[in-house]
Amino acid sequence: MELKELPEAAIPKFREGISLLLARWSALQMAVDNEWGGPNSRTAAFQLASEIFDFFTLSKETLYIDDLEDLLDKAMITLNTDVQDGSIEEVAEKLMVMHEECLEGNYGSVEKLREDVALAVTVRHIEQVANDEDEATINEDISNMILDAPELPQNSNPTQAATNETKTQMMEETDGWVTVASRKSKGRKKVG
After folding, report:
1. How far apart, in Å, are the Cα atoms of 77 and each of 47, 81, 109, 175?
2. Which residue, 1, 35, 85, 101, could crosslink 106 as a Cys pair with Cβ 3.0–4.6 Å?
3. Where are the domains of the chain?
4. Do 14 and 56 meet the contact criterion of CB atoms below 8 Å apart?
5. pLDDT confidence of residue 3
6. How confident is the model over 7-46, as pLDDT tens digits?
7. In angstroms, what CA-CA distances link 87 with 27, 55, 116, 132, 135?
8. φ, ψ dihedrals at 147, nearest 5°
């Protein structure tokens, strides 16, 4: 049985689909972002995209999903990543479906991935704007706390007082209520 070749028009679409799918594979992206495979982790991810394309286009034998899963698993092992969340099988299945569709001139899977990536970028932008607004609010609150800070006694050391204030909580009793203000920063990691 002779394998069908991708039509010329489908080749760039299929390459794009591979790249888009790998960009959405969180296990791969974590391995690349954290350089679990060393400083060349990003290069290894690009190499994986090329190997996947070759798997589909250079093979003269019937394509089996198990062989594709093995290819993906070996690539992740080179990135020092043991994937046990079922995503290798999921990615392999999506690649097989996308290849079949591209053989027929149907680019629905590629278009869907493109829309998903555009949506993810939009959501990330909205989250960034929200985080920036939250950060501005936090900075404003901190400024207000600084402006509302009690006066230091004449004989105190302002540097020492400021250092003590950042290390400990400042408490002020007002009408039986205790107000606690902290200047400790909360560590956040930005993703994406």
Report:
1. 14, 5, 27, 63
2. 101
3. 10-116, 123-181
4. yes
5. 73
6. 999 999 999 999 999 999 999 999 999 999 999 999 999 9
7. 8, 19, 17, 33, 35
8. -65, -35
